[in-house]
Amino acid sequence: MIAPAFSPEVAAARAAGAPLVALESTIITHGMPWPQNLEVAQQVEEDIRKEGATPATIAVIDGILHIGLTAEALETLARAKGVAKLSRADLAVCMATGGTGSTTVAATMIAAHHAGIAVFATGGIGGVHQGAEQSFDISADLQELAQTPVTVVAAGAKAILDLSKTLEVLETLGVPVISFGQDHFPAFWSAKSPLKAPLRLDDPTLIAQAHDMRRALGLPGGQLVANPIPASDEIPAADLAPIIARAQADADRHRITGKAVTPYLLQRIFEETAGRSLTANIALVRNNARLGARIAQALCTIG
Ligand code: PSU
Ligand code: MN
Question: Residue 246 belongs to a domain with what CATH number?
Answer without folding.
Answer: 3.40.1790.10
